[in-house]
Amino acid sequence: MADEQYEIICDRLRDNSYKLTPQRQTILRTFLDNADRHLSAEDVYSLVKHEYPDMGLATVYRTLDLLAELGILQKNDFGDGRSRYEFARKDLHHHHHLICLNCGEVSEFDDDLLESLEAVILKRNHFKVVDHNLKFLGYCRKCQSTLE
Question: Quick one: which residues bind Fe cation (predicted)?
Fold first, then answer.
């Protein structure tokens, strides 16, 4: 599955006249290898710098911005001063994030609790919601035990 997804992404880059540089390939592989995480540019940099010591943080930022612009990655702001990225999921319109205020862990919550609200908005305001972003802030299981 990861190889298939990689090839689809590479085709999208080529279709938009972007070269598939070794740096872009490495960053894409890093996201495929860490698909369950929400990586910042700094996270990506720390994961790739030993394989490509001459790759700078600026290259990582430019690549992440490009991949977000092409709709390959989704850029998220979790309020910690760093943008986090994840694969854009066209198959999943609604997913929400659970953000631990203590350790910063981010996990996903896939149940959509807002479909009925979207229907009310459409009916009352004649406004069709096509997407929304919801963040739940609190404490993960591990941090709850240390706070008690």
Answer: 94, 115, 132
Structural domains in the chain, CATH included, are 2-87 (1.10.10.10), 96-147 (3.30.1490.190)
Q: Which residues are annotated as a binding site?
A: 94, 100, 103, 115, 132, 140, 143
Binding residues for Zn(2+) are: 100, 103, 140, 143
Instruction: Note every long-range contact of 62-66, with CB atoms under 8 Å and residues 24 or more positions apart, other chains counting.
Output: 63/23, 63/24, 63/27, 64/27, 66/18, 66/24
pTM for the whole structure: 0.70
Extract the annotated binding site for Fe cation: 94, 115, 132
